[in-house]
Amino acid sequence: MRIRPLLALVVLLLAGCRIDGTATPAPEGWAFVSEQPCAASTGAGDFSCVTLSVPVDHARPAGEHWDVVFGLLRAEGERRGVFVTATGGPGSSGLAAADAYSSSFPDEVRQGFDVVFFDQRGIGLSQEFRCDDAYDDYYVPIQASSSSADRDEFAAASTQFGQDCFAEAGVDPSTAPRYATAQAVEDLEDFREWLAAPQLTLYGESYGTQYVQTYAAAHPDRVAGLVLDGVVDLTTDQPGFAVQQAEAADGVLTATFARCDADPVCADAAPGGTAAGYDALLDRLAADPVTPPGGQPVDDLTLRAAAASSMSDPYSREVFTDALVDALLGDVAALDELGNGPYAPDPSFSDGLFYAVECQDYDVVPQDGDPRAELDAWLDVSAQRGIDQLRLGGSFYGDLDCLFWPGSTTTPDVERPAPVTDPPYPVMVLNADTDPNTPFVGAEDVFRDLTPGAGPADAAVIQLDGPHVVYGRGDPCVDDPVNTFVATGQVPDRRVTVCRW
């Protein structure tokens, strides 16, 4: 997902298995290495693991190579196409999701399509890049009101974090550009060539929408169809996306309060309104933390953490609402569990790779620019948009470390893509209107730019009150048109379908 954890509050997950991150010389272009059953421990036990040796820098195909691993589940009948899933993050292992995701694919897809998941370069079995210790040890708070000295401290600590991350991963910082999505999609193109597939049907979720759009821009003639679920608009820069994300998270929390107020039982706990009750509780806990029996102190940060970590799906929002109601009635045990509970990160997810990709894909600092000056500019945006006055604005600051990431000032600038208006392949755009991670506005913008009636058809599915990433959760209103699109290439007759969670 193009989602940075909400500072120390939230982590979005998924990635896998350690190697030294070095590359070795190999023949020009890609080379087949092996195909063997994937180990059950990878999460792709039903798949074959295909390893290719690919150029580290696809602009220099005769240079260094490294191994990238793709999971392949061949069509049970005659192959009519290839269905590729790009998972979220960046930092998630596609192989780790392969068995779970593919088990819900309909028979017509399993019968007629080769199904592909993969560990993107830098993840899991594909030259994994990890710096868990550096990530866990690093946290320096920053906000719009931070003093110049505090900003200097953040800049120094962030610079050190980037250096420590590459050192722990055992990777030369000068090679940072190798992790860009533009390089990673060429690995998929090499795999398509090996598979001898004329075209690919691509499904991307969250950050995966960034990946598949990048592939489609580079190889539009190789795309049979594109499904974007939890949409990243590639034409939006990082500060703009950060604003959208912070405002969306705050908006979802406000909507969560409104749903409680509309329910008589829930509303009884906060006669003045749930939002006012939350704000008053925040002030009380800041002044006087409460420790439940056998629990940890519950303060204002606990409440914020509980809220921020619960906004991505309706179930979690309901659990948070129940915990808030209990706390307003004097019982903070559930709030303690949500906000202070033991954090068990998915061992397959790489926070280091999150930065390694994110900080390459966007020009947060112009080449030869001044990261410290750019920090001031980002914080000025925060002040102008009132980010720190939002109940949940912390996600705005999640990508600030990219300002000081290795290569931020030396990597050549990347031209922002033009909006896609008339692609040669059909497109389906999916999003919930209550998605705090890839806000609904991104899907709106991407779909708005598609020209109706020009070229292959396109369609949108909007799920009201839904989660981040909507396909594959069992709602036929969402799943049926997507499954039909994958199997036949046909979009729904109605250009916009509205579903309700």
UniProtKB/TrEMBL annotation:
Signal peptide range: 1-23
Taxonomic source organism: Klenkia sesuvii
Gene Ontology molecular function terms on file: hydrolase activity
Similarity field: Belongs to the peptidase S33 family.
Every AB hydrolase-1 domain range: 83-234
Annotated keywords: Hydrolase, Signal
Pfam family, one: Abhydrolase_4
Name this protein carries in UniProt: Alpha/beta hydrolase
Sections of the chain in a coiled coil: none
